[in-house]
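Project standup — Tuesday

K.O.: blocked on the structure for the chain from last sprint. Re-posting the sequence here as requested.
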Amino acid sequence: MVDHSNAGRMLGTRAKMTPVRKMNAAAARSLQAEANRIVDGTFDQRAVKLLIVDLRDVTGRGSAVREIGDFIAHPTIRDRGPTHGVITSVHAEFVAGFRAIRKAALRNPNSWRTAFKVTTRTAFQQADIIESLIRELRLCVANPDELEISVRRQQNDIMICLLCLLQGVEFAVGADGARADLGVIDDGTLALIINLDATADAAMRGALWPIIRSTVPVVPDRFEHGGKLGRFEGAREAVRGEDGALQFRALR
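H.V.: unblocked you, prediction finished:
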């Protein structure tokens, strides 16, 4: 673990170490270049994509980094993997709960006043992803301490890039499947969400459920969407503006 009290001193020099994990030379150079962009604070959505793609080939199954790399490599109709397993489980709970409410309502119409509880489970929290990313990067780069400090400091911007990359991933769940989109959840933060549908006695109900939760606050001065709950209208991208700041804007 890095001693963060020495962050300023360590960032002043880019100490070189021999990476622990062996990689193809071209992939190692690419990964180090993108890692250095994180250290320099010049990364964007494209740089994060290249970083994850390079890491995917040397990361074992089951980690958050590998799962996200698989999403990027195969974004259409995900029907396996840890995330699909969680989605399938949550969907089954949602369907069972909805059917129970419908059954009770047939006996007593007032039972519709009973609050329908939506699970607080999610496939990944921001902390899961950031810790996995740091763990994998430390094995593959020549400046692990410096990079870890930079990732922790800029983790919200990294999450914005990752969530933008995962828009449009599709999952085999329910009758028609579900597509992942960016959205704002009840605590006012950015998340990757899908709509889960349930039917019972010809009635249908849907619920937006976060696959990935972040700690990125959705504030009007950065997100034109404001703090309104639900999906964003249209896709978004994370790019650097002329002032060098990471911008979150409608995809052009």
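K.O.: great, moving the ticket to review. The radius of gyration is 21 Å. Helices lie at 7-11, 25-40, 45-56, 64-73, 82-107, 126-138, 144-153, 155-165.
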